[in-house]
Amino acid sequence: MSLNEKLLITVAPCIPTYMAKNVPGLDLSPQSLAEEIIRSYNAGANILHLHVWDEVGNPSTELDTFKKIISLVRKKTNIIIEGSTGGFNDLTPAQRSTSLQVDIEMASLNPGSVNYDQGVYINSPSDVRYWTETMHEKSIKPDIAIFDSAMISNSMQFTEEGLIEEPYIFTFVLGQQGAMSATAKNLMFLTESVPSGSLNFVARHSSCDINLSIMNMNMGGHARAGFEDSPFYLPGQLAKSNAQLIDRIVRIGREIGREPATTSEARKILGLKKK
Question: 4 versus 45: which is more confidently predicted?
Answer without folding.
Answer: 45
